[in-house]
Please model this.
Amino acid sequence: MADARLPQGWTLQQIRDVSGDREAVVLDPDRPVKWVSVAEGHEMPRPEIVLGFHSLCLVKPVDDVDWYMGSLYDDGSIDCWAAYGDLYEALRGL
Model:
């Protein structure tokens, strides 16, 4: 089931190798996600894929090609503050 939430063409091991995080995991996408910036914060579209890297995560919303980096909180919520055009770039940005 976790494989269904992996990005197309990627394995969990590839994600771990590129990110450098040997403990990266696929997380349940059913969670609140907000875009936060200096001036504003607003709800983002429903996540399709969420990848966890300790206290950071990468989120790919439904119907969006970009990946969003954010902070993962103990309650499962996410505040995103950076956007990347592709997964490889996002993984290297962790």
Notes: The two ends are 25 Å apart (CA to CA). Residues 47 and 61 are 4 Å apart (CA to CA). The longest strand covers residues 47-53. Strands lie at 25-27, 33-36, 41-43, 47-53, 56-61, 67-72, 78-84.
